[in-house]
Predict the structure.
Amino acid sequence: MTEKDLRCGLIGEKLSHSYSPEIHASLGKKYEYKLIELEKEELCDFFRSDSFDAVNVTIPYKKECMKYLDVISSEALGVGAVNTVVRKGGKLYGYNTDVYGIEASFKKAGIDVKGKKALVLGTGGASLAAIYFLSSRGANVINVSRSKKEGCITYSELSMHRDAKILINATPVGMYPNEDASPLSLTKNYDSLEFVFDMIYNPFRTRLLLEAESLGIPCMNGLYMLTAQAARAAEHFCGKDVPTESIDRAYAGVMKKCVTISLVGMPGCGKSTVGRLLADKLSLGFCDADEYFSQKYGVSPAEVITEKGEPVFRDMEEICIDECTKKRGVLSTGGGAVLREKNRERLRMHGPVLLIERGNDELSVEGRPLSAGRSLDELYSERRPYYEAARDIKIQNVTPIGACEHAEAVLSDMIFFGGKER
């Protein structure tokens, strides 16, 4: 059987927001890869059927699926969970590639876990892989559960572990569409943390990661882990190695498709022009927040500001920003969108933020009531802290084409995890 003939996919309970098909395609794999949503009572019939050659397994079946397998790898047995199943010679073989994905992520972030206390939140299959990885690499692991369970502490007991160096969120708390939730607050009691790893990859930055960034704690989401574990699964599917360069390339490609790249900056700095060029260059959709505003409300931002005042406009704009950031692609925002903390959070939550800069003497104020009639230097001075708080990357717009090329190059080179462009 050739690679192209393989029937592969992902099984789980809810899969509508999975990036796995895009990742396997980005790895250059030619096999069919379907999303297969199953109820628990359907698992037995599925594994007894001859409808697949290899599948990945996700929430909530990484433990449950083990009862249907003929052979389970020693690592998967050590973890106590399986996320990859391959049919070979009439038998079903189970593997765990999450461990590899976690290890690849920690290597990418440059984090050594040996001898460090690590907190792992959650008790599902993902947490088991995290615990296995940490324990086998010499970390002191503390497993945290919402309820009292053997071998775990509860969240109420976390105050005894303020010296923890590593925190891994292996729960779904904070996952889209419930992105305003967080498993815990880092504001107090976690001064010793050196790294926060959230296995969630949608949104791009969970509330937990936003908080880690605000406190200067290096952090990373689960998208690189997802890509690396998919590559190891593909090796099991096809019996061929996937080089690290292919993982990095697939990650960069998938990241662009799974985030909203937001452009912020002064009115008239060229956000819309650069944004359209960048979207075309990356083969992504484009959204102009001001145009979206006009289409949604049937009135322009300038008209609302003039007739009803800026506060009313900002309330309406906030709703638009929330909706636009979930569209994926490239988003050009209004010049003052960053003034509201919720907008800054939404932009950063859903992807990298590019600050487009241009000399104030080159900015047009035509049709911009908040720019006209006042000093642009004064306006920039007032807004600069908010632009800096929102942005990951700073792009000088000498020419739109040059700014687009710079943005594309930086986005391609960067692996985003807890920090701005250095």
About this structure: Residues 304 and 310 are 8 Å apart (CA to CA). The two ends are 48 Å apart (CA to CA). Residues 223-238 form the longest helix (16 residues). DSSP finds 15 helices and 17 strands in the chain.
